[in-house]
Automatic annotation (TrEMBL):
Its EC number is 3.2.1.21. It is an enzyme of class 3 (hydrolase). InterPro entries: Cellulose_deg_GH3, Fn3-like, GH, Glyco_hydro_3_C, Glyco_hydro_3_C_sf, Glyco_hydro_3_N, Glyco_hydro_3_N_sf, Ig-like_fold. The keyword Lyase does not apply. One of its GO terms (molecular function) is beta-glucosidase activity. This is beta-glucosidase. PROSITE patterns: PA14. It catalyses: Hydrolysis of terminal, non-reducing beta-D-glucosyl residues with release of beta-D-glucose.
Length: 862
C-alpha cells in the first residue's frame, strides 16, 4: 500500500483502531522534522520544514540549496495579496515539494511591538489588517499548491529574549484587536491546515497549554479544524498541554510525550485516553489532507532537490523589486542614468555592498541556490547602461557583528571550495578523548556549521570534529583577524600555531539559539601569495565559563563558526571611502544590518546602524551631494543622516535576487512601489513600547495597549521619521472624488463600498497603493485609535496622465471593536470617519468622508 493511500482512509475508523500507545506516539514528533508513522494502519509520516521566506529542508548543516525569498516585512511592503498568493503557489509550494516536505512552518504573523524584536523581520507588519490579509494570501497560495501552511507563533511572540518564559500581560481588547487579528483574518479567509503555538505565556499561561487561546478562541469561537503543534521544545507539561488542545509536540527529541510519562498521566487521571485520541485524530486529519493534496511527496523518495527555472528567477526578482521602498528622492536624482546624467564615475561604498546579506537569522536562514550582491547587481546594470562608466569601491566601515564567514575563502587540498571535516567518536559517552580512527569524513562548504541533529548517527554522545582547509592566498602580507565561536568548544590553528582558544575557557553568548559562546578573536600574520593551512578542532561539550562551570553536552544544538578578515585601520578605511566619494560624480552607499544583528534567539539593543556606518554615510554625503543610500534591514533603523542625503531606498532583506532587484529600482528598470510595513521612528524612545518592551522578572507589560505603531503617533500627535504605509514613486499621483455607498447591514454583517479617482500626474508609468483608514464615532464611550487601516488596493502600471476608478470594500471588521464585558465584537451606532490616501501620514490622507450607522449590532466567531 502506498503512503498516499491514506487519503482514502476513514479517520474515525482509524482512530478507533489505534492502541493507546499508538495514539500517544502520534501526538509527538519523531526526530526533528517528522510526525510518527503507524505502518500497521497505513499511516505515513509527514515531513515539515522551515521557514517563512523559503524552504530550507531538514538540515541547518550542509543544507540543500534553496530559494531564499524576501523577508516577511518585505512581503507586506508590496501591499499586494495577489502577488503574495502567486509567490506562495508558484515558488514556496513548489520548493516544499522539491524538499519533500508536506508542511511549511510558516508564515509568521506576529505583531511588531518594537523593531528591536529579534524576529521582527520574520513577521509581516505592525498593522493587524495588513498582516492578516497578507497572511491569508500566503496561506491560500501555499495550500493551493498542495502544501500545508502552519501559521505561527500563536500568540504574542513579539520578542526573543526570555522567550520561553516571559508572560505577555495585555488587555483582552488589545489581544483581540491587535495580536490575534492577523490569525483571525487568516482563519477567515484561508483556513490554515495548522497553527504553531508560541513559546511565551499569555496572561499567565504558556501558549502551548493555554485553553483560552487554543480551545476557546481558535476551536470554539473561530471554528478552526486546524491541527495545533508546538514550537520546537515549546511544551512545558503533559496534562496542561494535552487538555488545552495542543495536538502535536515538536520535535520528537527530548520530548515530554513519551509512552511512559503519558501512560502514567492517564493512570493518574491527569489526562484521559479519549483526549489523547482526540489529539491524535487532529494529526491524522492533517496527514490525510497532505496525502490528498500532494500524494507525490509521501510516495516519493524523500530526497531534497534544487531547481531554479528562468520563470521562478524572474518572479523572485520582480517580487523583491516590488517590495523596495523609495523613502526620499530630492531633486529627482533617482533613477540613475549614467549617460543622460553625465555620470562618468560612480563610487559604491558600504559594509553591505559586497556582503552576502539575504535574510535574517535563525529558523528563516537557509543556503541560497544562487545570490547576487548589491555591488554585483549594480555594476552589471550600470555597465549595461553605459559600458564606459567607471565604478570604484570601498567598504568604508565594516558592518559585521561577528567576523565575516570564510565560506568563499577556504579550499580543500584538491581545490574544492570549503574544507574537509573528519568525525571522531570518543572512548565512551563520558570521555573527552577521541578515538584514533574516524567515523566519517565529509566535504564541508560552509564555515558557520549549526549541526543540529545532522551529524553521523554512529557517533558517541560526546564527539569531536576536525576541520582542515587552505586559506586563499593574499596578494600582499597582512595581519588577518580570525573569529571563532561554538556551541561546544573549539580551537583554531593556522600553520600549526594556536591562534584562537575557545576550548579551555569560554564566555557564554547568544549564538546557535542561545547555546553558543561569545566569539573569541586572534590575529595571524599572512604572507603574500602563500597558502596557509587552517585547522579547527571542535568538541560538542561546552567549556567552563565565568559563573557557569557546566560542561553540558550539546546533543541537539551543537555548532561552530569561523570567520575572519584582514585587519584594517578604521580611520584609513573611512578616509578611503570619503576620497572615492570626493572623486566620483555619484555615490551609492549600501549599508544596513545582517543575520547577526537580526535573528531568532535574541533581540536588538539599538536601532542604530552598526559601528561607524552612520558616520560613513554622513561623511560621504558631505563630499558628494549626489549620494544615494540603500539600507538593508528587516525592520526599522534610525537615520541620523537623513537630512544630509538626497535619496534613500529601503531594501529590506531580499533573498537570492538581492542585487538584481536593487539595481532594477536604482536604474529605473522598475518604478518603486513598495510601502513601509512598519513605522520608522526618529529614535528608539519614540516607539510606544519603549520602557516596557523587555522582560522584567519574567513579565512583559503591553502598556501601549491598542496604540501600536502608527496609531501611537496619531494618538500623541507627533510625526515619526517615516509613517507606516509611506513610500515614493518616480511619478506622482492625485486622489479625487471620494464616494461612499450607503451602509448595508444584513444578517449580522456590514458592507460599504468606497470609490475614488486616481490619476497619474507624473511623466512615467507607475504603481500606487491606495490606503483607507477608519475612525470610530466620537460618541463612543471607549478610547479608540484615531485612524486604523481597514482596506487597501494596489493599482499597477497606470500610465502618465491616465486616471482610473478605484474601489475599496469594507465589512464588519472595519467598524467593530472588542467589548470585554460581554466577550463579543460590537458595532456601535454613530458617525464613522473615512480617510483615503497614499500612507498613514495625516498629510497624505488627502480625501475624507463619513458614513452613519443608525443601529449597531454584536457578533462573534468569524
Amino acid at each position: 500500500m502506498a503512503p498516499s493511500d491514506f487519503a482514502k482512509a476513514n479517520i474515525a475508523d482509524v482512530v478507533e483502531q489505534l492502541t493507546t500507545d499508538e495514539a500517544i506516539l502520534l501526538t509527538a514528533g519523531v526526530g526533528f522534522w517528522h510526525t510518527h508513522a503507524v505502518p500497521r494502519l497505513g499511516i505515513p509520516a509527514l515531513k515539515v520544514s522551515d521557514g517563512p521566506n523559503g524552504v530550507r529542508g531538514n538540515h541547518f548543516f550542509m543544507g540543500t540549496p534553496a530559494k531564499c525569498l524576501p523577508s516577511a516585512t518585505a512581503f507586506a511592503a508590496t501591499f499586494d495579496p495577489a502577488l503574495v498568493h502567486d509567490v506562495g503557489l508558484h515558488l514556496i509550494a513548489q520548493e516544499a515539494k522539491l524538499k519533500a516536505a508536506s508542511v511549511l512552518l510558516g508564515p509568521t504573523c506576529n505583531t511588531q511591538r518594537s523593531p528591536l524584536g529579534g524576529r521582527s523581520f520574520e513577521s509581516f507588519s505592525e498593522d493587524p489588517h495588513l498582516s492578516g490579509m497578507v497572511t491569508a494570501a500566503y496561506v491560500k497560495g501555499v495550500q493551493a499548491g498542495g502544501i500545508g501552511a502552519c501559521v505561527k507563533h500563536f500568540a504574542t511572540n513579539d520578542k526573543e529574549n526570555d522567550r520561553m518564559a516571559y508572560d505577555s500581560i495585555l488587555s483582552e481588547r488589545a489581544l483581540r484587536e491587535i495580536y490575534l487579528m492577523p490569525f483571525m483574518l487568516a482563519e477567515k479567509y484561508s483556513k490554515p491546515w495548522s497553527y504553531m503555538t508560541a513559546y511565551n505565556r499569555v496572561n499567565g499561561t504558556h501558549a502551548s497549554e493555554n485553553p483560552h487561546i487554543i480551545r476557546e478562541i481558535l476551536r470554539n469561537e473561530w471554528g478552526s479544524n486546524a491541527m495545533v503543534m508546538s514550537d520546537w521544545f515549546g511544551v512545558y507539561s503533559i496534562d496542561h498541554a494535552i487538555n488545552a488542545g495542543l495536538d502535536l509536540e515538536m520535535p520528537g527529541t527530548n520530548k515530554w510525550r513519551t509512552l511512559d510519562l503519558m501512560n502514567r498521566s492517564i493512570q493518574s487521571r491527569k489526562i484521559m485516553k479519549r483526549t489523547v485520541k482526540e489529539r491524535a485524530a487532529k494529526v491524522l486529519e492533517l496527514v490525510q489532507r497532505c496525502a490528498k493534496a500532494a500524494p507525490e511527496i509521501l510516495d516519493g523518495d524523500g530526497e531534497e532537490r534544487t531547481v531554479d527555472t528562468d520563470a521562478e528567477k524572474a518572479l523572485m526578482r520582480s517580487f523583491a523589486a516590488q517590495s523596495i521602498v523609495l523613502l526620499k528622492n530630492d531633486g529627482g536624482i533617482l533613477p540613475i542614468h549614467p549617460k543622460a546624467q553625465g555620470l562618468r564615475k560612480i563610487a559604491i561604498v558600504g559594509g553591505n555592498a559586497k556582503a552576502r546579506v539575504l535574510s535574517g537569522g535563525g529558523s528563516a536562514a537557509l543556503k541560497p541556490s544562487y545570490f547576487t550582491t548589491p555591488y554585483d547587481g549594480l555594476v552589471a546594470a550600470l555597465k549595461a547602461a553605459d559600458p564606459d562608466v567607471e565604478i570604484t569601491y570601498s567598504e568604508g566601515a565594516p558592518a559585521y557583528m561577528q567576523m565575516p564567514l570564510l565560506d568563499h575563502e577556504l579550499t580543500t587540498e584538491d581545490g574544492r571550495r570549503g574544507w574537509i571535516g573528519t568525525w571522531y567518536s570518543h572512548e565512551n559517552d563520558e570521555s573527552m578523548t577521541p578515538l584514533s580512527q574516524p567515523v566519517a569524513t565529509t566535504h564541508v562548504d560552509e564555515t558557520r556549521m549549526f549541526f543540529s541533529t545532522s551529524y553521523p548517527t554512529e557517533l558517541t554522545k560526546r564527539w569531536t570534529l576536525r576541520l582542515k582547509g587552505i586559506l586563499t592566498p593574499r596578494p600582499e602580507d597582512c595581519d588577518f583577524e580570525f573569529g571563532l565561536l561554538s556551541a561546544g568548544r573549539a580551537r583554531l590553528y593556522v600553520d600549526g600555531e594556536l591562534v584562537v582558544d575557545n576550548w579551555t575557557h569560554q564566555r557564554r553568548g547568544e549564538a546557535f539559539f542561545g547555546s553558543g559562546s561569545e566569539e573569541e578573536r586572534g590575529v595571524f600574520r599572512l604572507k603574500a601569495n602563500t597558502a596557509h593551512s587552517i585547522f579547527v578542532e571542535y568538541c560538542n561539550v561546552r567549556a567552563p565559563a565565568p559563573g557557569d562551570p557546566d560542561e553540558a553536552v550539546m546533543d541537539s544544538n551543537p555548532g561552530v563558526r569561523l570567520g575572519g578578515a584582514p585587519v584594517q585601520d578604521a580611520d584609513d578605511l573611512m578616509a578611503e571611502a570619503v576620497q572615492l566619494a570626493r572623486e566620483a560624480d555619484a555615490v551609492v552607499a549600501v549599508v544596513g544590518l545582517n543575520a547577526d544583528w537580526e535573528t531568532e534567539g535574541y533581540d536588538r539593543t539599538t536601532l542604530a546602524l552598526p559601528q561607524r556606518t552612520d558616520e560613513l554615510v554622513s561623511r560621504v554625503a558631505k563630499e558628494n551631494k549626489r549620494t544615494v543610500v540603500v539600507t538593508q534591514a528587516g525592520s526599522a533603523i534610525t537615520m541620523p543622516w537623513v537630512d544630509e542625503v538626497h535619496a534613500v531606498v529601503h531594501a529590506w532583506y531580499l533573498g537570492n535576487a538581492t542585487g538584481e532587484a536593487i539595481a532594477d529600482v536604482l536604474t529605473g528598470n522598475v518604478n518603486p512601489s513598495g510601502r513601509l510595513s512598519l513605522t520608522f521612528a526618529r529614535r528608539l524612545e519614540d516607539y510606544p513600547s519603549h520602557g516596557h518592551f523587555h522582560s522584567e522578572n519574567g513579565k512583559v507589560r503591553y502598556g501601549e495597549d491598542l496604540f501600536v505603531g502608527y496609531k501611537h503617533f496619531h494618538h500623541r500627535k507627533f510625526d515619526p521619521l517615516f509613517y507606516f504605509g509611506y513610500g515614493l514613486s518616480y511619478t506622482t499621483f492625485s486622489y479625487s472624488d471620494l464616494q461612499l455607498s450607503d451602509p448595508v447591514i444584513s444578517g449580522g454583517d456590514f458592507n460599504l463600498k468606497a470609490s475614488l479617482t486616481l490619476t497619474n500626474t507624473g511623466s512615467v508609468t507607475g504603481t500606487e497603493i491606495v490606503q483607507l483608514y477608519i475612525s470610530m464615532p466620537s460618541t463612543s464611550e471607549l478610547t479608540h485609535p484615531p485612524l486604523t487601516l481597514k482596506a487597501f488596493a494596489k493599482v499597477t502600471d497606470l500610465g502618465a496622465g491616465q486616471s482610473t476608478r478605484v474601489e475599496l470594500e469594507l465589512d464588519k471588521y472595519a467598524v467593530s471593536y472588542w467589548e470585554e464585558r460581554i466577550s463579543r465584537w460590537v458595532v456601535e451606532p454613530g458617525v464613522y470617519g473615512v480617510r483615503v490616501g497614499r500612507s498613514s501620514a495625516p498629510s497624505d490622507l488627502t480625501l475624507g468622508g463619513e458614513f452613519t450607522i443608525e443601529k449597531g449590532f454584536e457578533w462573534n466567531g468569524l
